[in-house]
Amino acid sequence: MASTYLAGVGMVRFGKFDASVTFEKLAAGAANAALTDAGARRADIEALYVGHVFGGPVAGQRVAAELGLDGLPISNHENYCASGATALREAWMAIRAGLFDVVMVIGAEKMTDRIKGGVTPDASDLDAMQGYVMAVGHALSAQRYMFDHGATREQIAMVAVKNHAHSCHNPYAQYQREVSLQEVLAARLVADPLGVLDCSPISDGAAAVVVCSPRGLQRLGISSTQPEVRAIGLVSGTLRTGLYDLNEEDISRRAGEQAYAMAGIDPNDIDLVEMHDCFTIAEIVRMEGLGLIPRGEGARWTADGRTSIGGRLPVNPSGGLLSRGHPVGATGVAQVCELYWQLTERAGKRQVQGAKLALAYCKGGTVSGTDGASVTTVVVSR
Amino acid sequence: MQTSDTDQPSARKRPLRDGLLQFDPPRLIGSRCQGCGVVQYPARDFCPACRNDCQQTTVPLSDRGVVFSYTTVRQSPAGRTPYVLAYVDLQDDVRVMARLEDLEDIDGGARIGMAVKLRLQSIREDDGVSVIGYVFVPDLSKEH
User: Fold this and answer.
1) B79 burial type by CB count under 10 A (0-12 exposed, 13-18 middle, 19+ buried)
2) What would the pLDDT profile of A157-188 be if each residue is shown by its tens digit?
3) B50 reaches A (C-beta below 8 A)
4) CB A315 within 8 A of CB A326
């Protein structure tokens, strides 16, 4: 089994762009940045993995045609918001299996011209038929979390304050200004108690990584110690019966354990987490589900600064989905870009000191009756 | 919005999805595992609880429950906001997601633990056929 390394990464700044900024342009921009960062030429790339949700059929191949990567083995991967990480997982498995030495992974999404009013499950989902939108699941989670653990609306809102503060130091973040607690609390309500600033934005963007075996690093002339992809966990949600604990996040526990075991790590050694904060409350319950924060303590940890840069366990030093933005297919790869910059001490003012072991978590989609559609857990170390 | 469609036996109607509910008496339909006894909604042909390939028997579910969590939706591509969505825990220990209606006269609106009861109602017309869905309304017999 060949070890897997990140040779280079690149992304475009996330944001809302007009029609002239196409899916293909975003993806190619990120890919070219990753090639440059890795010191790789087009001819070095042996395969392309593209994660996206709304790009349409064979989006990856349209992007390849813009990049001069046409003709290669190319596959498109979708697991809603975990699409980018799923694409990376496929690449990682291929490298481990010895199929390739140098591959490119791109996560990309153009949402502003096709998503209005919020993301939803497929119309055939039973919850969707009741009028469910993603914000509803998180609102129900937040109401219950406050009820069960005595957490306050203010503590939950602090996730947004923290992540917007972090993103001030991230040139690729969609938003790069602080927001105050008052702003978060006063924002227009989406699904009570969550307001607009509790929700990640609709975004366009792309991120890319060049992934190599040891032989691939050699071919690229890279002799420095590169961050290693130790494991990528993937689980689907399970059907929950009875009157289960809504915020238990069993899906997250399983995904974490799968990755920790495969990587052979103690989760207490993780130095930072890029977490899927599609909504403020989600960061809290998922960190607890992963076993990284004790159940019921996540809101308090956030308010106390323990998950801020400089705190005990920094979460979303990039600004997370809330502030970096959430072009759904791109997010999983953008998180890994951040892990790369953190582990190679290139994160500037958002650097987590002494970062050696990092985790990126994505949760994609919902299926009525289950505790989620897909979760990916990427462990990277240096 | 029609209220009880059992008042109109001659109206053409169909459930939102096959096998999801019955009209007389108006109930959601789940299935019970003959092995472990766990009831699920909607009905399926396997048991997610015990996974033992036991027979599943379809059963009408209780039409009474309590609100486990709820939210008022104010922004939605499904339109016509605001509306309230909730998880309702039925007396058979089955959790269902549905809209809550008729909250206007309840002081303080919805709350966790509120007693509710099932109401089937038409959610739209498809070529002259009423498509029947379900909501929950306050169970006033439980209010004190």
Assistant:
1) exposed
2) 999 999 999 999 999 999 999 999 999 999 99
3) no
4) no
Residue A120 confidence (pLDDT): 87
Q: Are A83 and A76 in contact (CB under 8 A)?
A: no
Q: How far is residue A88's CA from residue A342's CA, in Å, rounded to a whole number?
A: 18
CB A262 within 8 A of CB A269: no
Q: Which residues contact A116 (CB under 8 A, 6 or more apart)?
A: B77
| Cα–Cα distances in angstroms (integers) from residue A267 to residues A17, A141, A194, A341, in the given order | 38, 25, 30, 20
Q: Can you give the pLDDT at residue B143?
A: 58
The overall average pLDDT reported for chain A is 97
Q: Which pLDDT band, with edges at 50, 70 and 90, does B53 fall under? A: confident
The Cα A318–Cα A324 span in angstroms is 7
In 3D space, the residue among A300, A111, A322, A308 whose CA is nearest the CA of residue A197 turns out to be A322
ipTM: 0.93
Q: How far is CA A96 from the centre of its chain?
A: 22
What tokens appear for A244 in the block?
């289960």
Collect all residues with Cβ–Cβ distance below 8 Å to A197 and sequence separation of at least 6.
A157, A160, A179, A183, A184, A187, A322
Chain B positions in Cβ-Cβ contact with residue A191 (cut-off 8 Å)? 71-75, 85
CA atoms of A165 and A160, how far apart (whole Å): 8
Determine the distance in angstroms separating the CA of A293 from the nearest CA of chain B, rounded to an integer.
Answer: 24
Cα of A243 to nearest chain B Cα, Å: 6
- The verdict on A146 touching B (C-beta cutoff 8 Å) is no
- Chain A environment of B76 (Cβ under 8 Å): 117-118, 131, 133
* Chain B interface includes A114 (CB < 8 A): no
The CA distances from residue B98 to A6, A168, B70, B107, B133, in Å, are 46, 40, 9, 21, 9
A120 part of contact set with chain B, CB < 8 Å: yes
* pLDDT surpassing 60 at residue A137: yes
Tell me how crowded residue A265 is: count the other CB atoms within 10 A of its CB: 17
Cβ-based contacts of B61 with chain A (< 8 Å) = none
Q: Mark yes or no for CB contact B97/A139 under 8 Å.
A: no
CA nearest neighbour of A111 among A89, A80, A90, A87: A80
- Tens of pLDDT, residues A212-222: 999 999 999 99
Give the separation between CA A316 and CA A236, rounded to whole angstroms. 23
How many C-alpha atoms does A138 have within 13 Å on its Cβ side? Answer: 31
Q: Residues of A with catalytic annotation?
A: 81, 326
